[in-house]
Amino acid sequence: MNPKPLPPHQQLVGRDRWPVVGERAPRHSDLPWTITVGGQVWTERRVDLHQLATMPQTTRRIDVHCVTRWSKLQMEFEGVRFAELVAAPNGQPLWNPQARFVSFVARSERSHSTSLPLQELLTLDPLIALKADGESLSSEHGGPVRMVVPGKYFYKSVKWLQRIEFLSDDRLGYWESEAGYHNGADPWKEQRYIAASLGKQDAARLIRQRDFSGRDLLSLEARGLDLEKLHASNSLLRNADLRETNLRRADFRGANLSNAHLQSADLRDANLRGADLEGADFSAADLRGADLRDASLFGVSFGVVNADGGLSQAALIDATTKITTTSFDALTPQQRAWLRSQSVTLF
Ligand SMILES: Nc1nc2c(c(=O)[nH]1)N[C@H]1C(S)=C(S)[C@@H](COP(=O)(O)O)O[C@H]1N2
Ligand SMILES: [Mo]
């Protein structure tokens, strides 16, 4: 059997791994759970967990693709079809003609949400899932009940589903409005991020000052620049283009560099402690002397994986590169073996 194709720039996590991404727990999980269907509907619908469990259950194998570049293929989810929940008992749709978008809202601290166009949802045929791989969903993965929307990056699948709201106009979700995630979320088109959050002039000023500390610099373009000793602690550099950039001795403590493009960057002696490096690309980057302790490394790449499993354009890593065991455990077995062969220092 041919291996299933992966969307561009995704990598498989180990079979036994399922990373927890975003919020880790619902709010008031001790209180009874009901899901309401409201907004642009003829009549509201409320369904409790017991009712949900007694509706027809569908089992489906779905490929999960996280925007931070890890994928898990053919996960088995079980639950109620979205179309089933948003229909009246006579099978008629609950929504009225004004409805064009649907927002899914979580019972969580920040009332996390995401939205999708109604027509697209009807085609994608998502599940309101109660189980994953044969077991009740664990709390950190969205239990007791979460959305699973196939064909989209996983941020379109809300954990701890509490409300389904039909809307006449779109309302951007949490990641889409706070983190610059692309509202389209098509993994095959790599719709990961919207364009830069900062105007070119402001970006140029910060680059001159070499101080990014605490700034939101989503999708910043700084390719090939000299940013030696850059101050960038706690900055938000998701999707930033830092290819071939001189970042020697830069301070990225606690920064968010998820999906940053760091190919061939000079990161010698850079401080990346506690940074979010999920999905960052370090191909051919120089990481000697770099400190990656307590950094989050899911989906990171250290080179281009060849068909034979070997690594080309590998990052430069040696015994002066520091990584914590807990971050190390998030890597694929191949990456761990490769890092060991480079005699990286583990803490
Ligand atoms: N309520 C809620 N749902 C959420 C998120 C979140 O932070 N809060 N994160 C999203 C993102 S970005 C991803 S990749 C998946 C992660 O699901 P998992 O933790 O079960 O892997 O949940 C999505 N749904
Ligand atoms: Mo995600």
Automatic annotation (TrEMBL):
InterPro entries in UniProt: 5peptide_repeat (IPR001646), OxRdtase_Mopterin-bd_dom (IPR000572), OxRdtase_Mopterin-bd_sf (IPR036374)
Signal peptide: none
Superkingdom: Bacteria
Key words, A-Z: Kinase, Transferase
An example Gene Ontology molecular-function term: protein serine/threonine kinase activity
Pfam families referenced in this protein's UniProt entry, alphabetically: Oxidored_molyb (PF00174), Pentapeptide (PF00805)
EC nos: 2.7.11.1
Keyword Kinase: yes
SUPFAM superfamilies in the cross-refs: Oxidoreductase molybdopterin-binding domain (SSF56524), Pentapeptide repeat-like (SSF141571)
Keyword Transferase: yes
Residue span, Oxidoreductase molybdopterin-binding domain: 31-175
Protein name: Serine/threonine-protein kinase B
Organism the protein comes from: Stieleria neptunia
